[in-house]
UniProtKB/TrEMBL annotation:
Name of this chain's protein: SnoaL-like domain protein
Xref: SUPFAM superfamilies: NTF2-like
Signal sequence region: none
Membrane-crossing residue ranges in chain numbering: none
Domain spans labelled DUF4440: 41-155
């Protein structure tokens, strides 16, 4: 699960209809309970729309938890609510920009007890000055949500594809990004066995990517996995991911090095989310000059009955 394997290959994939998937570790609950959770998450979506259209930096910031991390293309991570607030304020200060439309399209929501994972697309339009020509924008996003004690939901981790002023989806802002305080270990304390198993998965990723083994790369993903890249439709299901891997490994590319670095890992019962950066080198043809690549990955993992972990949702962006 690297920028090389997340972002490579487009593939012709059919988008799934919106659906609710109950996470493997969630309590059975009732249809009424799930409907209540979905309604609360939908309130967050509506707040996102209203805040983005108004370009209200306070409302945009309030979508996120205090220990949130927002990841976007071509910029450092925004770590903590304060860093996200400062980024939103810089964006809102740009004169003349007006968001005309913003339409999120959520494709899938998976709920664990107190956690939720969703992915989807968004489309929007904006002008950069009064009377200016309207510009269109479209992208994808991966969000991990956390339920608060009052029953509301906020964004805990988020990544979006290239955006300009559609800030709710993950804002790209020019200039240096101020980092907030480091994220606390949170609910992953005392989970050494799970952390070790996730580390093994990461090492399997390194071995499979350097070997360019399409089968081994696909085996790291759950059957119902979704892989998102910067310029391609989502790859939905293990079979679609496998087919993309096969097309990629058919190219005469040789991966020389791959060095992932975990920046943050939070684990809950049956699930986990990791923010990872990576550096890699490769040659496009035999005897070619080595090229360097850097990237960022937001990965959501699912724990299997045998205690192993696989990738459930992931999005990668090159730097």
């Amino acid at each position: 699960m690297t920028v090389l394997s997340v972002a490579v290959g487009v593939g012709a994939l059919t988008a799934l209809a919106v659906q609710l998937v109950q996470g493997p570790a969630a309590s059975a609950g009732s249809d009424g309970d799930r409907a209540t959770e979905l309604a609360a998450i939908e309130q967050l979506h509506q707040q996102d729309i209203a805040a983005t259209l108004s370009r209200d930096p306070v409302a945009l910031t309030d979508l996120w938890t205090d220990d949130a991390i927002r990841l976007g293309p071509g910029q450092p991570a925004e770590v903590g609510k304060q860093a996200i607030r400062e980024s939103n304020q810089r964006l809102a200060a740009r004169p003349g920009v007006k968001v005309l439309t913003y339409v999120p399209e959520i494709k899938d929501v998976t709920i664990w007890d107190g956690w939720a994972v969703e992915w989807g697309y968004f489309a929007g339009s904006y002008v950069e000055s009064p009377g200016g020509e309207a510009k269109q924008i479209r992208g994808a996003r991966l969000w991990v949500l956390r339920k608060l004690p009052d029953g509301s939901w906020k964004v805990f981790r988020g990544m979006g594809t290239p955006v300009a002023v559609v800030a709710g989806a993950a804002t790209a802002v020019a200039g240096t990004v101020v980092h907030g305080p480091a994220t606390s270990a949170g609910s992953d304390r005392g989970r050494d066995a799970d952390r070790a198993a996730i580390e093994r998965l990461k090492q399997q990723d390194v071995v499979a990517t350097i070997a360019r083994d399409a089968v081994a790369m696909a085996n790291m993903w759950t059957e119902d996995a979704v892989r998102l890249g910067p310029d391609a439709p989502a790859e939905i299901g293990n079979q679609a991911i496998r087919e993309t891997n096969e097309r990629s490994t058919a190219r005469p590319i040789k991966v020389l090095t791959l060095v992932p670095q975990t920046r943050d890992l939070t684990i809950w019962d049956g699930g986990a989310v990791e923010w990872r950066t990576l550096t890699a080198s490769f040659v496009a043809s035999a005897g070619g000059e080595p090229k360097q690549v850097r990237g960022t990955v937001l990965g959501v993992y699912k724990k299997l009955p045998d205690g192993s972990w696989k990738v459930f949702r992931a999005m990668g962006l090159p730097e």
